[in-house]
């Protein structure tokens, strides 16, 4: 077990080429922004089981943060992250500098319409272009067979999948279920921002969403169920950005509640922390 | 000598992978929209000399045409193109359908700031995003070592080079000199639109540019030289979109005429045909 840390795309490509020449039939990539938690660990374990070689990337990507967002404050814990990845049997940690990813004169942006429309985009208009561009660069650098993303960032997962398919990148984009605390709170590196009091209230987001999903699955009017969930989190001090049910495959608004795959997605601020979550919704009979 | 025509990106990738496995050390791609003329032939000959294998692509890319432009009228001469490419010893012609390149749900756009700003973009605002996106898809599909573009589309050459570098594609973007008729007119598939009378006047664009370049190199005021070139082509019935000198590397406006590399670029309509051209400009002493 020997974790190699690689800082340039050229070195990463050399490693991957050497693995291919040596007969590695499947290579996985797990893109992260570090501050690794059990959700990341589950992604790495899935990748480790499925593939001969695993590359984890660690890059806090400045272009997906707006100026008023938490780029500077985002937790950076590379030493702890390296120890976790070494214990998980990861082969390479690719941790480039900002200059390596965005050298002077960098001028290219990849934008994805379709699944990026609405939801997060209404509140973070440059977010998905930042994500799509940096993930494309990571995939081009490593050319993995599979890349693993958490369903916690469900819209991001669909945007990345669309980008990879549209550009014809030879990488299968794999989504894995959200990992939660015992009380239902979705794991997120940003949970570290929560005060003890906020942490105690935070699980209400998931609980309210689950209750609304049950009411919709039982045939209740979706508008009423969603409005009640919004009222519940608002009265607990959340400031919701959105709480909606969309087509789980396209993220388009739902036309037919009984036949389309359904996904409930929400974002809400609690103090200075912005929480997002999403869950499947069973079709009403 | 045996030209293989391939219609899908999957088939193209299989061919290229087989060449790599068989030891081809260098693969070239020459992206075209067909209607091949001596300018394309020169690109293919350069590629043929430099690389073990040559792929020519033929795709009239709808996303780089605005609704009021000539997508429907653009010349399509695949049989003649195939015969030329076979004679030139090209290995594969990749000629996909529109549906192969843009299947339902396609939603991704690659845009490049920097060299795309101004000049053509002021008149064809969606052109370079269309070009950058389709060329990225072609390069990802074929992963060539080199891709050849004509300097006739000088701004396009710089945009494609920037895109490929920014995304980290492993392809060197090579520009080759514009091929001209004996009277100086730059070869273009669109020259076929010119009436006999327009064809007789068309070389004045290049002649006026060359005269202006000589005056600037001799130390004349650039503004005057360019204004006279504009007046000359206008009096011959051209309707100029732009005629400017820019930094040849960045396409930024020129600060220091004596030290920066200089390129004069122009676009002008003559009847229903839009002609573009560009030439180097020597620095004044």
Describe this entry's structure for a reader.
Chains A, B: One of its GO terms (biological process) is pantothenate biosynthetic process. Chains A, B: Keywords: ATP-binding, Cytoplasm, Ligase, Nucleotide-binding, Pantothenate biosynthesis. Chains A, B: This is Pantothenate synthetase. Chains A, B: Its EC number is 6.3.2.1. Chains A, B: (R)-pantoate binds at residues 64, 156. The structure is a homodimer of 285-residue chains. Chain A has 285 residues and is of the alpha/beta class. Chain A has 2 domains: 4-176, Rossmann fold, CATH 3.40.50; 189-279, Pantoate--beta-alanine Ligase, Chain: A,domain 2, CATH 3.30.1300.10. Chain A has helices spanning 9-21, 38-50, 78-87, 98-101, 120-123, 127-142, 154-167, 196-201, 204-217, 222-235, and strands at 4-6, 27-32, 53-58, 92-94, 108-112, 146-150, 172-176, 239-247, 262-270, 273-281. In chain A, the strands form 2 sheets. A 6-stranded parallel beta sheet of chain A has the order 1-4-3-2-6-7, with helices on both faces. A 3-stranded antiparallel beta sheet of chain A has the order 8-9-10, with helices on one face. The first copy, chain A, is globular. The A-B interface holds A 9, 13, 105-116, 132, 136-137, 140-141, 162-163, 166-170, 250 and B 9, 13, 105-116, 132, 136-137, 140-141, 162-163, 166-170, 250.
Give the CATH architecture of the largest domain in chain A.
Answer: 3-Layer(aba) Sandwich
Q: Under CATH, the topology of the largest domain in chain A is which? A: Rossmann fold
Please give the domain count of chain A.
2
Q: SSE order of chain A, as H and E? A: EHEHEHEHEHHEHEHHHEEE
Helix content of chain A: 25-40%
Report the sheet-strand fraction of chain A: 15-25%
Strands of the widest sheet of chain A, in order across it, are: 1-4-3-2-6-7
Largest interface: A-B, 27 and 27 residues
Residue-averaged pLDDT of chain A, rounded? 97
So how many helices of chain A? 10
Instruction: Please describe the biggest sheet of chain A, giving its number of strands, its sense, and whether it closes into a barrel.
Output: 6 strands, parallel
Structural class of chain A: alpha/beta
